[in-house]
Hints:
This protein is an all-beta fold. It has one domain. The chain is 0% helix and 48% strand.
Amino acid sequence: MNVGDLVKMKVGYSVPGLVLRIDKQHYGASTAYKISKVDRGKCIRSNMVDFIGVTEDGIRDRVLVLWPDAGYSYEESTKLEVISESR
């Protein structure tokens, strides 16, 4: 995905929008502190961390899109589908 591409939302109906700006690595993280065994309803403390694992979504880009019917909005890059690439 590049500036100038036409995109639409992956889920649901949307009219094509124009990509105006891409903020690289804006959302998310690649790793997280995780706790493997905690009973439901119990308190979690920072010294209970067992391992550092990868996150489900990882690092995502933030994209500024100009929608003809709704104006400007920021969207996550994983929620957009490229329809036509700019040259």
